[in-house]
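Sequence in, structure out. Go.
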Amino acid sequence: MINTENSFFILLVSGVALFLYGMSITSSSLEKLMAGKITSLLNHLSQSKILAILTGVGLTTLMQSSGAATSMLVGLGSARVINLRQVMGVIIGTAIGTTLTVQLISFDLTQYALPVFAISFAFYFKAKKTVFRNLALACMGFGLLFLGLKLVSTASHHFAENPMLTEFFQSVRDNPGYSLMISIVFCAFVQSSAITIGLAMSLAAVKAITFYDAMIWVYGANIGTTSVALISAAGGNYIGRQVAWAHFFYKTISVVIFYPFTQLFIDFLMTFDSTVERSIANAHLIFNIISAILFYPFIDKGAQWIEKMFPKAASEEFGTEFVNMNNYQSSALAVSYANREIMRTADIVIGMIKDSIKLFETNDPKVFDSIKDRDNKVDFLYRETKMFLLDHANKSSTVVHQNIMNMIMFLSDAERAADAIDINILALAIKKNALKLEFSGEGWAEIREMHEQVVKVAAMAVNAYQNRELCEEAIQLKRDLAKLEISLRENHISRLNRGLNTSINTSSIHLDLLSEYRRIASLLCNHAYNQRTHK
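Output:
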């Protein structure tokens, strides 16, 4: 059995571990509960700065970490889901959102930790529905969070009573810079400003450090939490770096502005009759709210400044832009990223459909090479995005898992459509050019008509993938295309009966081309039938 009289270090480490694990469980469970809504909100975030700030508050509340929330923003910025100005608004919101967790732990709720955990644990195993199981897990996480904080508080009493540590804390009080560096490093290590400030609360409550020192810890925690996003942006593109460094500069400049007024700030807070823990939590809240008010008018100017500091680099070699197998453990972010990559793939496929008609207009090798090159890109994006989605499928809730399967099916159909152009239509064009054949005037006009309709169906099908309300329209266009194909086939057969040599010579190519175009349209519309079925 652990002797709490001489094992305060073990208590501290155990408390921090339980706190962080509790936050992780709570974050993961809440995210699964809200995964679909998070993705939808982030994909449709408007230009409103107020909405961006509220989004940041909501994200941090769900993820229980401003650092983790900002890491998500680094990803979203890289994916171009939202622009830098919107990201900066969300960053301000994440700073405010993290104060809610600190406010919560400033209340003495540790006596409820074990009952909440025990009841939630029992409920978790009795619940059948995924939503209730995730809710129970979130409550279990809160129970562990408060239990961990209790252990940290107990360890802090031993810190205050230990002679060796007393001297250490005295040297820290004499040199505020040490407190700042210790809190920054500690926060960067545990990747949580909440536990950093929670530890400062516990130390201040037993008078191991002063209120002034605790405020320095608050400053350090705000700077240290930016390390999470900076690390996430290390391997990202220029937008990811812009987002991460915008977060860092926002936090650091806020600290620089506040630091000279720290004692006045403390004197103001001491006028209220509250515990030191509540005062520190309130200081953290007021600090971030005032910072948000000060920076709000300069969001656009700040974005311009950051964009100049981190300009767009030279174009990189072709590859996935929005998915990375080593990052984005969040299911909501994985779906958002993969959708961006899928739409990028769909855009390439539509470009191939539009240019496929040129294969029969010219014998230019560049056109043929362009089709093959784009098909290779589609194959690459299909493989990488599919592996990325499968990697996240088993980590997701049932609803998100089904969504991922639907995404893979649409991506597979898009890849098959690209193959139909690269393999089948390209072969027909090569055959036509090799035999030096020409379509009849009527036949060529009909092929062009078929091609134009296929482009319309393909574009509508891709739009319907993003907006289910367009599924019926996509299906109707596809049905009209099928009727058009039958009509054009009948016209071609009529010309054959009239004995037109150009029609006779190109008959197999003509009919096969109509068939391939209809097949391509059908492939891209498959998802519309599935989504209509599951409405």
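Check: The mean pLDDT is 81. The chain has 22 helices and no strands.
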